[in-house]
Design brief:
Oligomer: heterodimer
Helix content of chain A: 40-55%
Radius of gyration of chain B: 21 Å
Distance between the termini of chain A: 43 Å
Number of helices of chain A: 12
Number of strands of chain B: 0
Strand content of chain A: 15-25%
Helix content of chain B: 40-55%
Strand content of chain B: under 5%
Strand order of the largest sheet of chain A: 4-3-6-1-2-5
Largest sheet of chain B: none
Order of helices and strands of chain A: HHHHHHHHEEEEEEEHEHEEHEHE
Largest sheet of chain A: 6 strands, antiparallel
Structural class of chain A: alpha/beta
Largest interface: A-B, 45 and 39 residues
Number of strands of chain A: 12
Amino acid sequence: VKLYKVNKSIKTGEKTMSRGLWRIILYVLIISAPLTIVTYLNPVTLHQNGIIYEIGKNLGLTAFMILMLQILLSGRFKWIEAPFGMDILIRFHKHMAIFAVCLLLLHPVLLAGGGLGWGLLVKVDLPWYILIGKLTLMLLLVNVALSLFQNRLRIKFEKWRCYHDLLGPSISVLAFSHSWFAGQDLQNPPLKYLWPVILITSVCLFFYHRIFRPIDLACKPYRVIKVKQETHDVWTISLAPPPGIKKVFNYVPGQFHFITFHRNRNLPEEEHHWTISSSPTEQGIISSTIKSRGDFTSTIGETRIGDTATVHGPFGRFSYVNYANEQDLVFIAGGIGVTPLRGMIRHMHDIESEKSVLFIYANSDENNIVFSKELQEISSANYPRLNLVHILENPPRNWSGETGLLDKAKLERLCKNKLNNAAFYLCGPPGLIDKVLVNLKELGVPDKRIHLEIFSFID
Amino acid sequence: VRKTILNYTTSLVIFTIVLVIIMFSILRTSGVHSVGAAADTPDARGELIFIENCSGCHHAHLTETKIGPGLKGLFNQETLPASHRPVSENNVRLQLKDPYKNMPRMADDLSEEQINDLMAFLKNL
């Protein structure tokens, strides 16, 4: 008998929304804290320099706080990630970095225009801490540009991450040095004590995220216990927890995790994130189903039983478990996008859920259908009430099912009774998902009934 | 829908932060919360004069060097940090009028009354 256990730390519905809202309010309050402290507890005002100068100075203080908090957004801290999902949090991290750059570009301009003189912008013969400020701004611009244009600049993810790891903490320390020696407000308590504490906390969190936690996880590696070839280019890798630990971490079906395979044999060791294709009801193992599509994943078929892997998870909010009130579901997947949906369907089956699921699964041909046999078996069983519809772009001669592309007319015909009340879960290649999304909206399905995860962290 | 929520949230957060910056900047320059304006004492006036004229080179609340020496506890020391003259009001005034080493001459920019206020501030560091 398989036991059912879900991650109880993942809350559902409105509670999660309110928790997310409180975290956003807390974020804004922390960023505003220095200004509040300066204004109310230690108000040393430069009347002579006026409001332009004051705004310029406050832009600097605020941007410093935004930069120090960036590690909280990107550091994979579950307490922060849980209400939003990693995909959203990483994008918020990017938006706030761009906002900080805008503030810091305006910072010297307003200070110069507000009384310090335009020489601040053009002169080279300036105090060292002003030059440090200029250097910080330049490094920040480089860091943001590398992140935004990583694809266009054709920088590999691993290389980009090295740059980001070097530039991030360097910018924090340089920004601190500049503000500490140039900022008049920071010479007085309590900011005098708070400022170094903020820097030290931020840098410590960075080193925890990038060094100490990976070492800790690597000391407790998972073991590859099964490698199953699903199709000609898709493999399911099943992992068991480290010796002495019976259970894998708590997760809900549909979430994802980060894996670094340690396979030696001159195979690359890179960290990548993959959807968990297993269900938490499958005790003692956790699986990812991975498609070979170049670079690192082209070696996935060479993984062997007995290899080890560092696993960090779970993350993400793409799961029917997070929306307990939805009873009528439509899953739409393309190709390898089936993985989170397989986890959810297996989970529903094992806990004997009475939910109704219409599963539309599009593939180029019959050989590319992943989990074909298992999905067929579950659809023949009682739980869940699964209606499985395969669509093949290039069907074999004896194929009696749906063919062609999943266009609007087909979507309307297949989901006719579902458009008014069912919840839609979409996962697959961006081209397919973008089209389905547009078609669903045109067919009147509101946003709140459409769930999808933006699996790539790069726009 | 999650991207839409993200965009709304980001816009709201940015708008709030910009509002906070402007609000606090107005508060601090309007004089409502200004120590200098509220407490019209020589010490408070001296603090404003220090910020305007001296803080570019000297820390007021640190002993560390900025460009010139930090001035925390100036009048509790035996000698002035750069010239090593004995600490006294006369020698500090002398430093302002006839500076030792690289410090610019401040007495040209400040009235006698302003120097008196500045002295009141420096004595309390």
